[in-house]
Amino acid sequence: MTATPAIEGWFTTGDQPALIGERCTTCATSYFPPTAAAAGFCRNPRCEGTEFEQVELSRRGTVWSYTDTRYQPPPPYSAPEPFAPFGLAAVELPEGIVVLGQVAAGYGPDDLRVGMHVELVVEPEHTGEALIWRWKPLAEGSAA
């Protein structure tokens, strides 16, 4: 079985995966997930824009905050048995938005610090049936 994105249209796969966002054509404010067009209006309260373009967001960002999961999330989340805690990172992208995601396989909260640079990767979730985006810490000196 070939894994497919857990949420179609939210990210690309391949060698250089990217999150797919929307940008208001009036004020250039970017959004993720891509739902602004469905709403029919720009979420920027100072903008009256109603047209949006799909854009690939930056693949690298900076850890804004992070935590770990010490309890198994309730359904409909599907967790591996036995449950193993995993890291979550809130990453600020150059577009000025913060995107939450799990930390890449092999990394945890002890590998993170606020302000460090991370890169988007796409990995199979625990069952291997779906692909999800995750944040992978970059080596010191790697720019966002």
UniProtKB/TrEMBL annotation:
<dbReference type="Pfam" id="PF01796">
    <property type="entry name" value="OB_ChsH2_C"/>
</dbReference>
<dbReference type="InterPro" id="IPR012340">
    <property type="entry name" value="NA-bd_OB-fold"/>
</dbReference>
<feature type="domain" description="ChsH2 C-terminal OB-fold">
    <location>
        <begin position="55"/>
        <end position="122"/>
    </location>
</feature>
<dbReference type="InterPro" id="IPR052513">
    <property type="entry name" value="Thioester_dehydratase-like"/>
</dbReference>
<dbReference type="InterPro" id="IPR002878">
    <property type="entry name" value="ChsH2_C"/>
</dbReference>
<protein>
    <submittedName>
        <fullName>OB-fold domain-containing protein</fullName>
    </submittedName>
</protein>
